[in-house]
C-alpha cells in the first residue's frame, strides 16, 4: 500500500513517501536549520496510536554513515534536523558535474540529481522502519571555469582565458571539444546552458553545442581563412538553472586559426566500447585506440591522452599509454561503486601548434561474486551496549529473565557489495538450544534487516543457567560459488532480584577504633550480609565515603584503608556500605534491590602536627622610640595536638628585638632609625612540648619601621631648561660689604647664567630637592622668601666657583620678578605683555623648601640668577612701543641721536679706558685684528662676515679663535660677534664685562676666571 502525506516546512513542502509500513521516504532541503521538522515517524508508519498513550515510547534511530544529522523525539516520533546538511559534502559531484555518488551503507544517490541518506527507526517493541531522507539541492554554488590547467584536446586554459586552435582547412560543421565549467550543485541548479560572444563578429562564424551533462563543442559555421583573420576573441558564458536568478560564470576565449598546411589526427572509430569484469587485474590492458596522421616525421608523431574528464574517477581507475594508445586498469574496480565509464581520448601530433583528434571510449564493468556479505548487529534497549559491544569476538546482547516469548533483543543488518544474484543475501541462525529465532523485517536499498527474538521465557532459578547463551548468524549470497559470512553472538540473561539481600541487625551499625597513623591498605573491618536467592551474588559498595579514605572488596565486604588519616581534621569518619543483590557485577539494572549498613571509624590521636603561626607575619613600629616603649605585636600559634603535644613556645636569636617565649609579645631592645633600616626580618622558631620528639616550625616575620618626620629637605643642583642657560655651582659666597646679611649659613644651590638669546625665556630652571623621609613627610613644596639685585659690576665669580659680592645689593620685591610653579617646580621670570621683568644683572633669590610632615620641616637655599647685557636700545625701544610710554620713547630717541652724532667720542673714551677696564673686568690680554681669522668664525657657524671690529680681546692661554670651536671646551665662556646686521653667539660665560654693546664693534672677551 502506498500513502502520501504532506508536511509544511518553513520554505519547502515535503512529501514523505511511504512504500510500506517498513519503509518511509522523506525529503529536506540542504542547509536547513537545526530543529527543522522532517516527518512524523509514528504517524507515517501507522503507529500513531502509540503517541496517544503518553509517556516515552522509546523511538530510537540507528544511523550508519550520516551519524548526527537527524534526531527523533522518543515520545512523539517527530524527526528533525540535528546537524548541518551539506548536499555537496554528503553526495559530492565528480568533477563538479551532477553524477551518481559512490555507494556506502546509509548513503544512497539514485540518479544524477538525487542524494539520499538512509537509517533505521526502531519503534518498540519490535517495529523496524527503514527511513530514507532525500537531500534536495539549493543553488548555493556558482559555475566556475578551470584555471591554470591544460587539457589535451585542441584547447589550452591559461589563467581565465581558453585558447582553441582550429585549422583553416576544417569543413563547415566541424566540432571542436572545449573546456566547460563545473558546478557543485545538481539537477536544474547545475549547469544548464552556454552562450558564445565573439568580438567583431555577427555570430555567423562559430557556435556552441552543449549536451547534458558534460559535452561542450565549438562548431565552425562558415569557412575559415588564415590569411584573412588569424584569431577570434570573445567570451563563453556558463549559467545554471537556479531560480529565480541563475548563477553564471564568464571565461575569455581565443580561437586561433592555423595554416592549412597541417593535417589533423583521425581515429578509426568515433566510439570504442569494451566490457570487462570487475576482477580484471591492475595493469591489465583492456582496449587499444588508434589514430593516424597524414604528416610525416615529428609532425606525424602522435601522443595519446585522456580528454577533458568530467568524471575525475576516470583518472583514478584507468590510465592510457601515450605512445601506443593502450588503455589499462590503474586501480581495482568495483561494479557496485561504478559500473559504467564514458570518457574522451585524444591524439595530438607534434606540430609547433599541435593538432588534436578525439574519440570516445565506453567501459562497462561486469560484477563478479568477489564480496562476502557484511553483517552489522545492533542491540536494542541494552544498558550495557555503550560499554561492552563485543567480548572475545562475540557481539554482546542482553535479555532479562521472565521476559515474554518474542522479546526483540537485537537488529541484524546485512548486505553485499556485489550486484544482482551475487548481492542477494539470506541469513540463518545457528542456535543449539533453540532459545532464539531470526525474523526477516524488511529489505531494500541494498540491505536486509532481521530481528533477533526470544523463543522461550527464561528463569535462571529453575533453568540453572550459569553461562551466557552463544549463537551464530550465517549470511550467504546467491553467487556461484556462494560466499558466506558468520558472526558469533553472546546473549546474557540478566537475573532479576526475586529475594533481597540484607544486613543482620548487629551489623546494621558498626563502630571500630584505629590509630590515626594507620597506614593505607590496613584492614578495618569485615561487613557480612545474607541473601536467600538460590544463586546469590552480593556486591558491596561504599557510599558517603567523602575523600575516598576507604575501599571495600565488593565480593566479601572487607573494608581497607586507602588514604592517610588526620584526627585533627576529622576525629571520626562515617560512611555507609550498600549491599546490592544483582547478577551483573556493576549493578546498573534499575530493578536491583539493596540494603544499607552504617559504619563509624573512630581515630585515636597521635602527635603528628607541628605548630602553625596564626597571627600576622607583618608588624610595624615608629622610629626613634625608646627600647621597650611600645608593644610591637604579639605572635599567636596553634597546634591541633592535645596536651603537651599542643603546647607552644616561641624562640628567636635576634639581638634588636625581644620575643616572650610564652606570650609571644614583641618589643624592641634599641632605638630604631627608619632611614638606616626600614624593615627587619626575624626568624621565629615555634616548637611544641611533644613527647618523645617535639615538632618545630620556623617562620619569618617582618617588622616595618614607620617613618617620623625627622629629616629636612635637601637641596640639589637645579635642572636647566634651555641650552642658552648655563649653571655653575657656588662653593662659597663672599659678601665684602653686606657682611651682616645673616645668610652665610644658607646653602647656595647654583649660579644660573642666562645669555641674551635666552633672556626673553620665562622658564629658567627646575628646582630639585629630596627628603630622606617617605610619603607626606617627603612631599616637598617650594616658595620664594625674598631677594636682592646686583648690577653687573657688583660681583665676580672665580674659577673655583667663589662668588664675591663687592657692593651693597638693592633690596627689591623679588616676587614681582620671579615665581615658582607649584606643580612643576619650575622657577620662571614674570613677564609683562610678553616682556620679562628681570633686567641685566644678578638676582639673589632666597628659596624655601618644606615637606608636608606634621609638623613640617623646611630648608632655605639661595640661587643666583644672572641676566647678561641685552641690546639695550633696540630691546628698550620695542618694549616702550609695546607699553605705550611716550616719555620714555622720546628719551630713547634722544639717546639714539646722541650715539649717532658722537661715535668718535665714544670710541676714544672706550679706547682710553680699555686697559683699565680689562683689568677691572678680569680680561688678561688684548690682541689686534690680524689674530682673528674669518675662517675661524665660519668654522663655528658664521656663514658670512661683512665688517670687522677694531679690537678683539682674548685670554693669553687661548689666543686663537679656533681653540674655541666647541663652546664646551671653554667652560661656558662667551664669544659674541656683533655687526650692523645681527648678533651671533659662539659661547657663554658666567657674566659679561661690557654693558653698552655697540652695534658695529666686535667684542670677543674672555674672563680671567677661566
How would you describe this structure to a colleague?
With 1010 residues, the chain is mainly beta. It has 8 domains: 3-136, Cadherins (Immunoglobulin-like, Sandwich), CATH 2.60.40.60; 144-258, Immunoglobulin-like, CATH 2.60.40.60; 266-366, Cadherins (Immunoglobulin-like); 374-494, Immunoglobulin-like; 506-604, Immunoglobulin-like, CATH 2.60.40; 612-706, Immunoglobulin-like, CATH 2.60.40.60; 714-868, Cadherins (Immunoglobulin-like); 914-1010, no CATH class. Helix content is 7%, strand content 40%. It contains 9 helices and 73 strands. Strands 1, 4, 5, 7, 10, 11 and 12 form a 7-stranded mixed β-sheet that branches. Strands 58-60-71-70-62-65 form a 6-stranded mixed β-sheet, with no helix packed on it. It has a 5-stranded mixed β-sheet with strand order 14-15-22-21-18, with no helix packed on it. Strand 21 and strand 22 form a beta hairpin. Mean pLDDT is 78; it is low at 1-15, 96-111, 148-155, 585-589, 871-885 and 917-1010.
Keywords:
mainly beta; 1010 residues; Immunoglobulin-like; flat; 7-stranded mixed sheet; disordered N terminus; 9 helices; 73 strands; 6-stranded mixed sheet
Briefly summarize what is shown.
It is a single-pass membrane protein. With 1010 residues, the chain is mainly β.
What summary fits the major beta sheet?
7 strands, mixed
Mean pLDDT: 78
Spatial separation of the terminal alpha carbons: 124 Å
CATH topology of the largest domain: Immunoglobulin-like
The CATH architecture of the largest domain can be given as: Sandwich
Gross morphology = flat
Number of discrete domains: 8
**What would CATH call the homologous superfamily of the largest domain?**
Cadherins
Please indicate the percent range of residues in DSSP E strands (runs of 2 or more).
Answer: 35-45%
Level-1 CATH class name of the largest domain: Mainly Beta
The stretches of 5 or more residues where confidence is low (pLDDT under 50) are 1-15, 96-111, 148-155, 585-589, 871-885, 917-1010
The beta-strand count equals 73
Percent helix, as a range, is: under 10%
Query: Helical region count?
Result: 9
Quickly give the structural class.
mainly beta
Radius of gyration: 55 Å
